[in-house]
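Human: I would love a firmer grasp of how sequence relates to backbone shape in proteins. Take your time, and here it is.
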Amino acid sequence: MAGFLDKERIIAGPGFNRWLVPPAALAIHLCIGMAYGFSVFWLPLSKALGIKESVKCGPEVGFFAEMFTTSCDWKISTLGWMYTLFFVFLGCSAALWGGWLERAGPRKAGVVSALCWCGGMLFSALGIHLHQFWMMLLGSGVIGGIGLGLGYISPVSTLIKWFPDRRGMATGMAIMGFGGGAMIGSPLAADLMKVFASPESVGVMPTFIVMALIYFVFMMAGALGYRVPATGWQPEGWTPPAIHASNTMITQRHVHVKNAFKIPQFWLVWMVLCMNVSAGIGVIGMASPMLQEVFGGSLIGVAAKYGELDKTQLAAIAGVAAGFTALLSLFNIGGRFFWASLSDKLGRKMTYVVFFVLGGVLYFGVPGSAAAGSTVLFVGAFCIILSMYGGGFATVPAYLADLFGTQFVGAIHGRLLTAWATAGILGPVVVNYMREYQLGLGIAREQVYNQTMYILVGMLVIGLICNLLVRPVADKWFMSDAELAEEKRLAHEKAASASTTGTSNGRPDSVSPAVVALAWAAVGIPLAWGVYRTLLSVLKLFG
């Protein structure tokens, strides 16, 4: 089995269709992207024992005791720690094992990711059955988080090597899948919980089991579908652009991952990603309450502020806000592909300039649109902002490949994802605590987000400055030809002289167009279903 997963076993031969690789990456990203949608389980899990109503824990049951108690239900705030662990371990595992991934290859990393993500869900299902929250933290949070990290970065360097002519588009396609995972997984989980719910169960445990098995099939198919190009492979009819003044940001050489932390450009791009994500992720977490508190009864045609509404009216505007959240998710996903593809034309640096300048203008204008009572301007601004949030994730791998070369881009990207883990703490803290602080000062609910928007503008200004400071990497950081040859040997790549055959025996590797179409249908149909279900929620916003 180990030999079957080795990197040298998946070097593509002549005639291989590179368009088979993106659906393989999407198959994995659409599964692990369910991490974004785990909140769909919080409410039912908070009633796992009581079924109809939560069995409240007494004041003597603290957080540590809650992990082991079997006599009362978990609080939603406690369950949220699983979400936190997802992204902490995603960043840590991507940073720790990114170098191993480059040498082991995407197939082996994809298989390990499937075992961790799906195995973690099964272990969590056992934790639900035994009502042991520590098992859920270990299963989905830690083990699943490791699977997240490996699965997230597994296709990055492979896609960049297959699409040197369209780096942004290629990584945008895969990372779009991570954003779309919750769009498929959340309604699927909701439907399964309805099927499995009974007077004795909220239906979460069997839902975890079924989803783990479905995900395992898709992730293994994706991992086994990965192929890597032979050293020196290029798309037919394409030649690398010559180095001249207009594209000095794109190197043809390679930086070793061990030197990444020593290079100023790495930390500048780290700050660029951190500031872009911090601004966006804080809004994602508060999108629903923000719309409700800012516009109140006007969302349903009632001339009343949020605090003046009754329970029926509050439920109605909550439904409208759910449509707003769904609309943001569509722009988040679409932005990953749109902006990353556009970066192939604009250049990565200029694309981030657009993110920061346009994003800053939109954040600055949000309080004005709220004061004017313009729901259209408010919603439109955040849709564009969330598209750039997703676009930042999808564009950064290509930015790294331009600056540091492709040999270790997956590993360097893994280390850069620590910026995501940092932003996952920084963004929500700024938005949530500023809201609480403003409410404490007695400021009206519809105005508590104004100062927050200006703080987020400040974050984008910091990101803009860091992006403008990025320059081509100094020659001293690039590997010599001898060092590069040794790394290629360690990574089990074939010598450039043998690259024309792609495999040791030179067998053709052509694939029927029907197989390519089936591969895209396998990921496209679930994605289309997820978009359809999301659009049904969006209709509530415009109803």
User: Anything to note?
Assistant: Residues 495-505 have pLDDT under 50 and may be disordered. The chain has two domains: 21-53+80-232+513-537, 248-484.
